Amino acid sequence: MMSWSRPLLFSLLFCFDELILAQLKYSTPEEVKLGAVIGNAAKDLGLDVSSLTNRRFRIVSGAQDALFEVNPNNGLLYVHKNLDREQLCDRNGACLIDLKVVVENPLEIHYVTVEITDANDHVPTFAEKEKVIEIAENTLAGARFQLPGARDPDVGINSVQRYKLSQNDHFNLEIRERGEDKIPFLVLQRHLDREQKTNHSLVLTAMDGGTPPKSANLNLTIKVLDINDNRPTFSKEVYSVTLQENVGLDTVVIKVKATDLDEGGNGDVEYAFGGDINSKVLELFSLDRNTGEIRVQGQIDYETADVFKLDVQASDRGQPPMTTDCRVIIKIQDVNDNEPQIEVTSISSMVPEDSKHGTVISLISVTDIDSGLNGKVTCSLIGNVPFELKPSFKENMYSLVTKETLDREIVSHYDISITATDYGEPPLSTFKTLSIQVSDVNDNIPQFSHSPLELYLTENNAPGTSIFSVSASDKDLNDNAAVSYRIMRGEGGHTDMASFLNINPDNGHISALKSFDFETVKTFQFQVVATDSGTPSLSNNVTVNVFILDQNDNAPVILYPVSSNGSAEGVEEIPRNVNAGHLVTKVRAYDADIGYNGWLLFSLQEVTDHSLFALDRYTGQIRTLRSFTETDEAEHKLLILVKDNGNVSLSATATVIVKLVEPREAFAASDVKSATKVDEEDNVTFYLMITLGSVSLLFIISIILLIAMQCSKSTDYTSKYLQEANYDGTLCHSIQYRSGDKRYMLVGPRMSIGSTIVPGSHANTLVLPDRRRGSGEPKVPSADWRYSASLRAGGVMQSSVHMEESSVMQGAQGVLVQNWPTASSAADAEGGEVSPPMGAGVDSNSWHFRYGPGGPGAPPQHLKPGEVPPEAFIIPGSPAIISIRQNQGGEDDKSDFITFGKKEEAKKKKKKKKEKKDKKDKGKDDGDE
After folding, report:
1. What are the pLDDT digits (tens) for 545-587?
2. Residue pair 744/729 in contact by the 8 Å Cβ criterion
3. Taking 90 as the threshold, does the pLDDT of residue 41 lie above it?
4. Spatial distance between the Cα atoms of 383 and 436, rounded to a whole number of angstroms
5. Distances from the Cα of 553 to the Cαs of 556, 592, 648, in angstroms?
6. For residue 747, what are the contacts with CB-CB under 8 A and spacing of at least 6?
7. Helix-then-strand count for the chain, H and E
8. Within 10 Å of residue 462's Cβ, how many Cβ atoms?
9. Omega before 860 cis (within 30°)?
10. DSSP bridge pairs for 571
11. C-beta neighbour count of 529 within 10 angstroms
12. Helix or strand or coil: residue 282?
């Protein structure tokens, strides 16, 4: 079989758009057995046979792809369906079947043409079994009579090649060629004599050129008629006309005309189609028997046949009738009546979003069965899509490729509309939609809704319970969007708070493994890492700032009095001759909590005589209410209760025993105590001075940094942790209060009228309304507004909290905002030490001290508004004591001074000791005299 299934001697290779194209041609006869091998296409194309299966070696042609198949294992091209050349190609000269062979990885397209050669598989046939021809007896020798031709679907040498007439004495056979057709004619050789023989029986045999030849017979009966010596004649032997396809029915195509010189019935002409006309032609055209008009009676389609050849016969009505014939050639003109057809061969309907530019998605082929410009097609894409069509070297062949970067998170699906338009008048178009799905690639990191996150956690939380939840979203799909969470650990140790936290990797719920203590840790931060499950995985982290909120979990601690065994008990000796208002002692206490939880109040629980002693509720000072009498007892016991102002108050008690002694005994006892403690207090004072210097330096540096930050900060800038407070243009406001006959003023940052200090369980927080937001949104508290440890605890030298009902905190334009207590830690009866108000939630570093005449909120008369005198400055958080005295006339006492801690008290004791020693020495001198 290989003799007829050989590849031709040419193979063309082309390269276009990364596609390797080749063309191969085979030849095979029709009617071969199914499965017959035509050739080894893979070998002839130079492909590796072992890789055909992996590369999906296949035929992807259109409607004729079922005729042939390729074996993906060995690359053989074989017959898949019965090959009938006459059915496939009718009577066309060359029957060529174009196949499109595709292999992938890399993509290659090969064009294979299979020529189906004709086999002598058809027998010539006549349209009728018998033909009767009437010939007048006076017909002259040489007269010709057209005989029906035989039809053979085969072509070339296998079609009808010759005719043979049976042996006779009167007739001969003549063959005329009209184009590709051979027309047999019966030629009269000898004169006919009806009286001798009425009918002549002949046999016409048609034979093809096959080996062996095949034939068919037609029985001819010649009837000899009486004379009719003139036959009709046509004006033309061949008529030609052009007809557009799709013309309307009953349209006149052409009118033939034949004339007969005879008269009467012998001259009347009738028309009829020749006997060998195809039956399909008779369905399309009709012939008027009397007029010779040929009309359209069926749908004319150029794509079915572009030319029709009709034989028309004219006969007179003589007896016998005489006939003649002519040929009518009807050429069909094409009309643009067929839309282009789009054929899509998809490589893949799923395209990764990271595909490179120029990636081939599909192969597009366009066909139009019209001819000329009507069959020339242009193809394009509709809309703005990240794809484009690239033409192939072969006409009407395109590749659909990517031209831009794809992003599934923006567009995950494309419906690509392809339009094909021909060049006809008017042009015809067709559309086809191709669905492309963009597959996901892990190209998006998890995103948190806010960064950083802020957590406000009340201290003493239950270990193991959930305290917070983080959530991150990923725009990818499936595993690429599955997020797991972990906490980024530090170096470890007790300072790494992240080591005491645990996170659920699936839902981001964070639980604390320990209970946090505000007094130990006030704020810390940790980082949570969110990682997706893609390959490779992507991650993102967020910082969580944790602010521990205070609870009232610390009871007040008594600093003074404290006995040698550690109990809150002390003995105070005072002379009997003191006046009313004498300061007996001062109970000092502090609370580790802040705000209201650390605001201490003093109350006298038990006392032997209520008429003798009074306890200041805010300062803890114990003073005499009247002078002592001889009848008063010498010893009095006072039980003082110290409690904070938390929601659930905590308290402590101190016991003070007051002993009344004679004035000389009191001075003697005081000297003994001063002598024993003077050395120790000198050392303490030295250390306190060093501490004060360090704290003062740090405070000054902090003030400079704060001013620099405020100057560089934009007016629209809002801290991440503290919403911007609204100021009204001035830098400070004041709190005034009285203690005895003296007036004091605390000056701090001036807040706007709308600024509000909110007491309660979170009294350490200053909440400022944000005018740029709705009133219902709370503001974030900041650790910058919390008291320092020295101000909350009061330190060793800070004794108590002093409250006065007359204290006011003013907003803008002097508007009253909130009543707040002031704080005092005076070490003597003057009550001159001042610290910022506790529980107000205002930074202690912004408060100054003012004194002097004037109404509430007004500066001293000798100062301009906003100025602070140097002697009015207090270092917050330090044990410094500012003592201020005023004369009754309101003028400043020149003896104003600043002392540090107990140093002033030690100096007083030294001075008293020296005076006493001088008195003793003077007494001795007097005795000596």
Report:
1. 999 999 998 999 999 998 778 788 889 999 989 999 999 999 9
2. no
3. no
4. 15
5. 10, 9, 9
6. 732, 733, 734, 847, 848, 849, 850, 868
7. 6, 61
8. 9
9. no
10. 657
11. 16
12. helix
